[in-house]
Amino acid sequence: SEHIRHIEEVCALLHEANFKLNVDKCEIARTEILFLGHVIQADTIKPDPDNIRGLTETHEPTSVEEAFRFVKAAEYYRKFIPKFSTIA
């Protein structure tokens, strides 16, 4: 299949560059992966629910410092928050 061909190409390129894969850590033919705090599927990327739980379940900031910390934490996911720059 095309997927297997792509895997073979990637493995060949990594081998040429002297990269070694840890087979125990490799996940092949998955429909969804978790990467850098994002859930990646065939045609979507969304924040990992475990990572944003701290943002969604937090109490309302009661000081400027708390509000600043919240905005800085949320900034990593700004591409998923419509009008983030207006809100923040």
From TrEMBL:
<protein>
    <recommendedName>
        <fullName>Reverse transcriptase domain-containing protein</fullName>
    </recommendedName>
</protein>
<dbReference type="InterPro" id="IPR051320">
    <property type="entry name" value="Viral_Replic_Matur_Polypro"/>
</dbReference>
<dbReference type="InterPro" id="IPR043128">
    <property type="entry name" value="Rev_trsase/Diguanyl_cyclase"/>
</dbReference>
<dbReference type="InterPro" id="IPR043502">
    <property type="entry name" value="DNA/RNA_pol_sf"/>
</dbReference>
